[in-house]
What we know:
This protein has 11 helices and no strands. With about 350 residues, the chain is mostly helical.
Amino acid sequence: MPIASLRRFMPVAVLACALAAPLLAQGDSNSNQGVTDAEKRVAEEADRLEKKKAACSVEFGNLIRPSVQKELAGDAAAAVLKHKDTIRTQVAEAKAMAQGGKRARTSAETALADDVRTAFENRVGRNLASAPVCDIFIDNVLDGINGGTAFKVEECLSNAIEEVFTGTDFAKNWDTALAETFGKKLKEAKTALDAAKRQAADAAEAEKVAAAGGIPGMILVPEGEHVIGLELADFLLAVIGEELGLIGVIATILGFLWITRRAFQIGRQAIAMERFYAGLVAKGVALWIGSQAFINMGVNLGLLPTKGLTLPLMSYGGTGILVNCVAIGILLRIDRENRITMRGGKL
C-alpha cells in the first residue's frame, strides 16, 4: 500500500481505536450513576409535588374564609374603581375597530387583571393566583365592567369559587381535586423517570456485555458463558464487542467511518459537476448515517446518555432498515450518475 494512502488511513484508525477504547475499561460507574440520579429525581419530584399540594391546601383554606374573601373583594373593588373608566373607553374603541369580530384584551383590562392577580396572591397565595379560580374571577369582574350595569365584586368572587369547586362542600371537593391532579402528575413523573432508570440500567448492562469480550471476543466460547443478549435492543455494538471483541468493534467503527467519508466524496463530486441538488442529498445522507451511528456507539460505550437511536443498517427493526436501504440506494444512484457524467454520457 502506498505511503500516502497509509497516511490518510492513520487518522481514521486512531479515531476508531479512541472510540472503542472505553470497552476495555470494564467500568459502569456512569450508568450506575445514571440509575442513582433517576431515583433521586423521582424522590425530588414526589417531594416537590407533595409540598405544592400542601401549599395549595393551605391557600384554599384561606380562600374559603369569609374574612379573606371580604379583603380580597375590597382590593379588587379598588382596582375596578381605578381602571373601569379607562377600560370602558378602550373597549368601545376596540369594538369599533373590530367591527363585531373577536378583539384582544385592552391595556387597561390587562392592568386590572394584574392588580387583581396581585391581590389574590397577597390575600390567598401564589399557587391559586395562577389557578383557574383567579382567571374566572378576573373574567367575571371584566364582564361586569363591560356589561354597563351595576355589579358586586363579592358576587364575582363567589361565582368563581362555585364554578371551580362545584357543590357546597368546598373542602371535600378541593381535597378530591388535589388528589386527582397531583396524583396524576406524580404518576406521570414516576413513569417518565422509571423509563430513565430502565434506560440507564440497560446502558450499564450493555457496558458489561461489551467489556466481557475483551480484545479477541467470545465467539468461540460456549454459549452458556456469555453475559446476555441485547440483539433486539439499541445495544447491538455491545453484542459485537462481546462476540468479536475490541477488534470487531474497531472494524464496525471503521466501516461507518468509510461509509460516511465515501458519501461526502460522492456529494463533493456531484457539486463539482454542478449537480447541486444531488450533491446536497448525498451529503445529507452522510450526515444522517454518520451522526446516528456516532450517537448509538456513544450510548453503547457509556459516553452518551441513552437516546433510543438504532445502529444504521445493523440494528433489529423493519422500518429503520428499510429507510436506511432506501438512503443507500439513493446514494448509489447519485454515484452512478456522477460516473456517467464524468464519462461524457447523458442522464
